[in-house]
Amino acid sequence: MRVVVTGGAGFIGSHIVEQLAADGHDVVVLDSLDPAAHSRPPTLRDGVDYRWADVTDAQAWLDALDGADAVCHQAAKVGLGVDFADVRRYVDANDVGTATGLWALHQVGFAGRLVLASSMVVYGEGGYRCRRHGGVRPRPRQSGDLDRGRFEPGCPRCGDELEPAVVTEDAPLDPRNVYAATKVHQEHLVTAFAREHGIPVTILRYHNVYGPRMPRDTPYAGVASIFRSALAAGRAPQVFEDGGQRRDFVHVSDVARANLLALTAPTLYDGALNVASGHPITVLEMARAVASARPGPSPEVVGRYRLGDVRHIVADPSRAGAAIGFRARVLPGEGLRRFADDPLRA
Predict the structure, then answer these.
(1) Which candidate in 90, 123, 128, 179 is catalytic?
(2) pLDDT tens across 42-63, in order?
(3) Annotated catalytic, 179?
(4) Alpha-carbon gap, residue 242 to 287, rounded angstroms
């Protein structure tokens, strides 16, 4: 199978490319080498056709799609970024890049397999239950509450503290920052394309991905990489809020395997799937696990916050198991210890 992987030189994309190539697939990579994520990778996979171009370049898409059986769209600007001034870069990279690719797919009459990398950020806050009102959706957090150290969201009806619950793919989409809004738009764009062209599209909603080759020393990296960068520099990881935020940290090798399964399943799954370990932990627990595996300072809980963050987001990954046979093999306890010594990308 000939597979076009956008962002295939990046953190997650490079692992996907390795697994595809190892299984004998013909791989074409389209990657801009965005300096916010990485410079030119020092080593490239033999036999892979690397093309250094931006996904907003329509001709690059048309050239890469020649003879393609499948597209695995990973290219995106990720993370919360620096501040709202990043909005145009996020929309260009994520929304315009996806729209350009779908236009090219339409132009060449593509009828193959399409897999989109999405994110748990599309849900906003995760699932919650109120003791009196059952399942509820908390309102966006307010700076006044956060300034007072009230980090747990309250019930929108009675104000009582909520109990976190797992979120399924059927939960309503509720983006609460610019990056999340662009991921929702990507999902809507590929779904519209797939319906109009009569093909299925698999949307993989990654939870907190970590592992070797994460970019370091950048505000666009995930929290695991930010903590690792601090430890490598001899600084204590700065844990925001009280550290009690619950997340699902899923290893990059598992995420790559989920893509391979989605691309090669006998029947392509049509819809969204959570890609998660199924073993949530708190951000403070994650920081301690990484810090304890290497010499250096212990994490510091600093109480600061970012308004665009959410408190808890934990997934139910069972649908991915039933649909494409995906179950995480690397659990956080083992994976985070390994991550303490994993090489990061400059």
Answers:
(1) 179
(2) 568 899 999 999 999 999 999 9
(3) yes
(4) 12
